[in-house]
Amino acid sequence: MTFRYPLATSSWDQAEYEAMDRVIKSNQFTMGEAVFQFEREFAAYVGSSHAVMVNSGSSANLLMIGALFYVKDDRLRLKRGDEVIVPAVSWSTTYYPLYQYGLKLKFVDIDIETLNMDLEALAAAIGPDTRAILTVNLLGNPNDFAAIQQIVGDRNILILEDNCESLGAQVHGKQAGTHGLMGTFSTFFSHHISTMEGGLVVTDNEELSQIMVSLRAHGWTRNLPDNNLVCGSKDPDPFLESFRFVLPGYNFRPLELSGALGTEQLKKLPEIVAARRRNGEALQRAVPADSPVLLQKEVGESSWFGFSLVPRKDSKLTREVLRARLEPDGFQLRPIVAGNFARNAVVEYFDHVIHGSLDNADHIDTQGLFVGNHGYDCGEMVDKLGAVIRAL
After folding, report:
1. Among this protein's residues, is 374 annotated catalytic?
2. Can you tell me the distance from the alpha carbon of 138 to that of 169, in angstroms, rounded to the nearest whole number?
3. Residue 45: enclosing H or E segment and its boundaries?
4. Residue of 50, 179, 191, 363 with catalytic role
5. What is the DSSP secondary-structure string of 136-192?
6. How far apart are CA 296 and CA 303, in angstroms?
7. What is the largest CA-CA distance in the chain?
8. Per-residue model confidence (pLDDT) at position 226
9. Which of 37, 98, 226, 370 could connect to 308 by a Cys-Cys bridge, CB 3.0–4.6 Å?
10. Cα separation of 27 and 17, whole Å?
11. Thinking of the domain 14-264, which architecture would CATH place it in?
12. Are 113 and 140 in contact (CB under 8 A)?
């Protein structure tokens, strides 16, 4: 089906096709220098010391959690049974790595306006067994990390970021994804930049970055520096070192095509984010403050992955009415991420608890939806969307 206002569109032009052509002519398709160049440039762009590219944002989340089981610093290392606080609204692969590494999930409600973790609920949820908070910057909107750090105080609780939807967002003068110990990004087709499939983890911790480099490719030592923080020193004979395995890793290697695409896409990212922000500002102007539809409340500078539309709880408006008004005009619609994930049957496999009520997450689950935003002028779409909402 063709939509007049789709959720996602391509951000490629001739530069991306020429980059892929260079890779094809090089005959180097698996992870190589194009990937490593993109990692360096991406780390510099977001202001992080290290970036490790993988084949998806989902793999990035798994790699981030896995690395914490092998770090030597006791203050950073996680073990099975440790409690991790998560927001109830996110995508499935925010949660799956926690289950896969035997961690205990504690779901907390979200703020109905920002769609990020409710800070009062977070403060109340922290207990003696809490070892980490996995924050999610939803739909381009950063969390208030100054407030979260104040809540944590001097307790040894790790702050991690799933920033897969929010590349280019900023808060407190820093890029989203760089406020915690590690942060993850996705470069899937529908996200701010696209490398077909792809993801990254960034960190300022050198040991964690080297652990992830090993875990990314079979847990071997081949891609590590000669002297490193994972195995110490490598044998100077590459033949003897070629199949040396030191960690129980994966094969998350990205393709050279994806690395080359990333370098070209990164050049366009400032304007992509600026255009998305202009579209977001235009929509906020177009929707009255007393509208029965809640728009996402911006924290810092959102990169506006999409536009959430949530009927107010005290309104008679429903999601079905919104759909009936928007779909005939050609809007492609989706639920807000995965809604209240704690409602899903898969959660029965998790070691988990629910802190308090998830009323806001439930409301998002049953009543919320979002439309797409893009890295170019969406004035026509914004005007149409604003007119439909005002007519309600």
Report:
1. no
2. 11
3. helix 33-46
4. 191
5. E-GGGPPP-HHHHHHHHTTS--EEEEE-TT-TT-EETTEETTSSSSEEEEE--TTSS
6. 12
7. 73
8. 97
9. 370
10. 16
11. 3-Layer(aba) Sandwich (3.40)
12. no
Which residue positions in the chain have pLDDT lower than 50? none
47: left (phi over 0), alpha (psi -120 to 50) or beta: left
Residue with tokens 């973790």: 117
Is residue 337 within 8 Å of residue 190, measured between CB atoms?
no
Give per-residue pLDDT as tens, 220-235. 999 999 999 999 999 9
In the 8-state DSSP scheme, what is residue 298? P
Instruction: Name the percent of the chain in helix, strand, coil, to the closest 5.
Output: 40, 20, 40
DSSP state of 99: H
Distance between CA atoms of residues 203 and 251, nearest Å: 20
Neighbours of 138 (CB within 10 A): 31
CATH of 270-391, one of 3.40.605.10, 2.40.10.240, 3.90.1150.10, 3.30.70.1140: 3.90.1150.10
Rounded to 10 degrees, the C-alpha dihedral 37/40/44/50 comes to 160
pLDDT for the residue numbered 367? 98
Q: State the pLDDT at residue 120.
A: 98
For the chain, where do the domains classified as CATH 3.40.640.10 start and end? 14-264
**Which part of the chain has CATH 3.90.1150.10?**
270-391
SS3 label, residue 238: helix
Rounded CA-CA distance 340/365 in Å is: 5
Kindly state the helix (H) or strand (E) to which residue 307 belongs, with its residue range: strand 306-311
Give the span between the Cα atoms of 368 and 310, in whole angstroms: 5
The encoded tokens of residue 338 equal 């995965």
User: pLDDT tens-digit profile of 32-90?
Assistant: 999 999 999 999 999 999 999 999 999 999 999 999 999 999 999 999 999 999 999 99
CA distance 170 to 321: 34
Tokens (6 digits) for 379: 């004035």
Rounded to 5 degrees, what are φ and ψ at 210? -70, -35
Q: How many residues does the chain have?
A: 392
- The DSSP code for 350 is S
